[in-house]
Specification:
Shape of chain A: globular
Strand order of the largest sheet of chain A: 5-6-7-3-8-9
Order of helices and strands of chain B: HHHHHHHHHHHHHH
Order of helices and strands of chain A: HEEEHEHEHHHEHEHEEHHHH
Number of strands of chain B: 0
Oligomer: heterodimer
Structural class of chain A: alpha/beta
Strand content of chain B: under 5%
Strand content of chain A: 15-25%
Structural class of chain B: mainly alpha
Helix content of chain B: over 70%
Largest sheet of chain A: 6 strands, mixed
Chain lengths: 306, 297
């Protein structure tokens, strides 16, 4: 496959991006401009010339196979990796500034918290809300209220006093989301949030995220290779395989699009990856079920004249 | 000499008092830090830092200020302290920036410092003569050798370390609980790592006065390990760790006076007995410490 022949953004999808930007009217939450990144010693770049805008209040899914650069893009967004090429702005700030200003909430791919720690659920969530509070001050009232609201929003209030080590995996994930929300970020970044979760748990997670988005209206970026997770909880999907292949609404995740994404650019790296057309259709059906009114919005966004 | 004689004889009591004050201050400081050490799995760092003190003692010997005991003499104390802090920072930098595995970095600094210390002390004895440090005292400590000045230094150091922990408690807790997430939230994790390394070095060097080089790191592990076996509430864990430290100190001192053996060994053995007891009664203690509540499930 001739790599140079792959257009970074399909023309039809560029129209979608423009429509989204116009409909929101506000400055983008996150701007990626020609972002490239290569890990030291790596022969192949992790990201090549990725340009993308994420609008305020939008739920963007970043879909791609393993090794496509999804987590790298998130780490760059969080300022955890240095920007080598291109430019990233998060609400007009550099990623490092945005992180220091507490604008970005983060849910990691794997929970690496030390769950033996003798902290209650409420104490864990309070860490997110009040770690910046000066030592001599007690936890501010606004932070305490944010903690309680976050616990209620994710359904963790009933076990707020329970030590974190006694919770199930799903409960811990809810607590971690509450911790991120309690910090009152303007954008939430979730890295493979449904890895290791069964179908029921994934559905519950999608509902939880829907509630969070409805309640806070915050911008959400979900990175996943799981079609189900992306299709059920996003307004728009960016297909990434080292390069940005296309922007589509979840309904646009057709077998043809997925086929290109999962076999095109990473062919040389991971071998041929076959996409299950049935799985794609199932995801589309699931998204229709989860967002019964999304069809009209999707059409409006797709149509620049709407 | 029995404990009762030490306590009833005013002259002996005056000799014992600085050791008791220094011991209590050191034990409380180490008990609080030990909770973080156990949870962050930093026990081996305590070993590395304490054994690095040999290098510091060697430098003090060359400088002509080495006296009996690992931390004896204010000048020697600060030389050893500076050496151990530098070693702790070196370990952190080697594992963070040079890509050396953390346990490998600690192992290298540990053996290199011990070898350097032995060479410098031997050189001092060969070329300038004079009394070398008491190796038994360096290895196992002696609470009977604690002077009033030592007690003041130990108390001041302990207060400073505990105040620093209290000042940074929120970001320190976040970092210790979930380092990757803390970094994403903007917590200055690298700076906190160095801060904790320095605090551990300071605590270890100060604890050497009481229990010696070999056993100093034990004070940074056993109280926290015992407390974490007993409760899953942070405040309770800290109280238990401090109580365990003090009980171990007193029990160890009594045993030391009665059996006329080094205090450090006795204190560590007493702490070990408490840890084993906590392990045996772990589930029972947690049930007692746990407030009544509904199941999270």
């Amino acid at each position: 496959m001739d790599q140079a022949s792959v257009h970074p953004v399909a023309p039809a999808d560029a129209a979608t991006v423009a429509a989204v930007a116009r409909s929101s009217g506000a400055a983008p939450a996150v701007e990626y401009e020609s972002v490239s990144f290569t890990y030291p010693g790596a022969a192949v770049s992790a990201l090549e010339n990725v340009s993308l805008h994420v609008e305020q209040g939008e739920r963007l899914g970043i879909l791609g196979p393993n090794g496509a650069g999804k987590s790298t893009l998130l780490k760059l967004t969080l300022g955890l990796l240095p920007i080598q090429g291109g430019r990233i702005r998060v609400f007009g700030r550099t990623p490092t500034q945005a992180r220091r200003d507490g604008l970005v909430g983060y849910l990691a791919q794997r929970n690496e918290a030390e769950l033996r720690f003798p902290l209650s659920v409420r104490q864990v969530v309070t860490l997110g809300a009040a770690w910046r509070t000066p030592a001599i001050a007690s936890t501010p009232r606004a932070a305490r209220e944010a903690v309680e609201h976050s616990l209620s929003l994710v359904g963790a209030a009933p076990y707020a006093e329970t030590p974190i080590g006694r919770l199930s995996g799903g409960q811990v994930q809810r607590v971690m989301i509450a911790r991120a929300l309690a910090a009152r970020p303007r954008i939430m970044v979730l890295d493979e949030p449904t890895v290791g979760i069964d179908a029921v748990g994934q559905r519950q997670f999608a509902e939880l995220l829907e509630n969070v988005h409805r309640d806070t209206g915050m911008t959400i970026i979900i990175v996943s290779h799981n079609l189900r997770a992306i299709a059920a909880g996003c307004d728009r999907v960016a297909c990434l395989a080292r390069r940005l292949h296309s922007h589509v609404t979840p309904k646009g995740l057709t077998p043809a699009v997925l086929g290109e994404l999962f076999s095109h650019d990473v062919e040389g790296l991971f071998g041929e990856m076959h996409v299950d057309a049935h799985a794609a259709a199932e995801c589309q059906h699931e998204h229709d079920h989860a967002h019964p009114h999304d069809h009209g919005e999707g059409q409006a966004r797709m149509d620049p004249n709407a | 000499m029995t404990t009762l004689q030490w306590l009833t004889d005013p002259a002996q009591r005056a000799l014992l008092l600085p050791g008791l004050i220094a011991g209590a201050a050191i034990v409380l400081m180490c008990a609080v830090l030990s909770v973080l050490v156990v949870l962050k799995r930093l026990a081996f760092i305590g070993q590395g830092v304490s054994h690095s003190a040999f290098g510091g003692i060697g430098v003090a010997a060359i400088a002509g200020v080495a006296t009996a005991g690992a931390g004896s003499g204010t000048a020697q104390f600060f030389i050893v302290l500076a050496f151990c802090v530098a070693a702790a920072i070196g370990m952190a930098m080697a594992s963070e920036r040079a890509g050396v595995e953390a346990d490998t970095a600690i192992g290298v600094f540990l053996v290199a410092s011990m070898a350097l210390g032995a060479v410098l002390i031997a050189w001092r004895l060969q070329h300038r003569g004079g009394a070398g440090a008491s190796w038994e005292s360096i290895l196992f400590g002696s609470i009977m050798n604690v002077t009033r000045a030592d007690a003041v230094v130990a108390t001041v150091v302990s207060v400073v370390v505990l105040a620093t922990v209290a000042w940074f408690r929120r970001p320190l807790l976040f970092w210790a609980f979930d380092e990757p997430a803390a970094a994403a939230f903007g917590v200055p994790t690298a700076r906190l790592r160095y801060l904790l390394m320095i605090l551990l070095a300071v605590a270890t060097v100060t604890a050497m006065k009481l229990v010696g080089v070999v056993l100093a790191s034990a004070l940074l592990v056993l109280p926290g390990a015992t407390a974490l076996r007993s409760s899953d509430r942070l405040t309770t864990v800290l109280w238990i760790a401090c109580s365990v430290g003090l009980v171990g100190l007193i029990a160890g001192m009594v045993a030391s006076l009665e059996a006329n053996i080094p205090s450090g060994v006795c204190i560590v053995l007493a702490l070990t007995v408490l840890f084993v007891g906590a392990c045996a009664a772990s589930s029972r203690l947690k049930r007692i410490a746990r407030p009544p509540q509904g199941s999270p499930q």
